[in-house]
Amino acid sequence: MVRFDIITIFPEVFPGVLGIGVIGQALAQGLIELNCHNPRTFTRDKHRSVDDTPYGGGPGMIMKPEPLFECMESLGDPRPFRVLLSPQGTLFNQKIAGEIATRFSRVAFICGRYEGVDERVRTNLVDIDLSVGDFVLSGGELAAMMIIETIARLISGVVGNHESVTTDSLEDDLLKYPQYTRPAEYRGLRVPDILLSGHHAQIEKWRRERALEGTRTRRPDLFSCKEQGENGM
Prior knowledge:
single chain; alpha/beta; Alpha/beta knot; Trp Operon Repressor, Chain A; two-stranded antiparallel sheet; 9 helices; 9 strands; elongated
């Protein structure tokens, strides 16, 4: 069982999409656990303020360090792997998801808001800051859901057929090969004959070739990394 702790000023948005489908089933079965913690609980002023103006001036508000530090510290033992969601973070990918899923039984997420968090949070409180893309969201909640679902799918028992996880897009630094289902022909559009042949070795070869071709065309950045890795560079 893996426990996910989310530090957010909007705990009511959870579980959100995590409450449906295979992740929702995993929650119901106790394969994963989801707990929200509101940093406002750790404020001491009458307005329960978690933000303040930035030193040096500038637009917007910054999340204060005290509520975030104290909220994280209240989680107790075992110490969770601590993640800050931030546009400035390392770009999250399937490899990072796999590392977290295999190494940690507890993961905590700090969902930033406003113009971000006090830098002392990033440099002293968390183990890694992660971004889900080169764009800006209003807060880290949606990013946390995306990352949690990606990690949860890799936990044993969450996805019924584990082979479907190991053959997902990006698991081998490649996009997934094209897939088809019945009918074999629809409006004159036919499924490739090779997939109807029953020759499993040839089908696997075709799938590998299509995966390489699709990655080269649609994600040349991934294809370049794949080539370098296979060439030992």
